[in-house]
Amino acid sequence: MKKMMTLFMNGFLAVVLAACGGNEESDGANNEDKAMTAEADQQKQMEDMQKKLEEQQIDEEKTVAIVNDEEIMGSQYNNALASSQGQMQQMGQDPTSKEAAEQIKTQTIDSLVGQTLLLQEADQKGYQASESDINEKLDEVKGQFKTEEEFEAALKESGMDMKSLKAQVAQDIQLQQYVEKEVPAGEVSDEEIQTTYDQYAEQGKAANQEVPKLEEMKPQIEQSLQQQKQQEQLVQQVEKLKENAEIDIKI
């Protein structure tokens, strides 16, 4: 949410600064004109990209999939889609190309189906987010903003309200509880840590970068490998749940 607001403010400020600077004269006027033109071009590119991204969205009321009689709606799909699009952009890739769009669509549906199956399993096993845990997490989210007004604006910009945000936070906590108990992080051997460090060191030397000692990096490497193993186990758990699930993809 905060990232979207940052993008919006950058574009808004570019327009305002261009308008305010229109009557100023100086020896560097030509340079200012070029800078303003560049800003305008950049703003147009951002707007064009945003339009293309939004074209990939679907009707919020449309049923995307049915998982064990539970519907996944277009609103859920669009939120997950935006996250996938953002991740691809961060990797320097264009999520609006034909190939990427199909890839994102498939990944988004798979992710939503997997999440739904895990949440259903969490419900059956009795995992629930307490009101205090939900409120604590909401306070963390609000703490990312300077004022309540800024938070409310970002919430509106994201197409959510407090009710939907609270529901999302509750699901996140419930899923986290389930994963921590049912899919614990795997143990990592010293040999695995050494192998990973050697690979990192080799890459660092090839790039003429200073490589920290193993002792300094060991905790970070161990945590990363544990997360990888947990992720692999989570994928296996989803595949296992799919075997006995009724899944109907509608798009």
TrEMBL record:
InterPro entries associated with the record: PrsA_foldase, Trigger_fact/SurA_dom_sf
Gene Ontology MF terms: peptidyl-prolyl cis-trans isomerase activity
KW Signal (keyword) present: yes
Signal peptide: 1-18
Enzyme Commission identifier(s): 5.2.1.8
The UniProt record lists the keyword Iron: no
Reactions catalysed, as given in the entry: [protein]-peptidylproline (omega=180) = [protein]-peptidylproline (omega=0)
Enzyme class: isomerase
The protein, known as: peptidylprolyl isomerase
Organism: Bhargavaea cecembensis
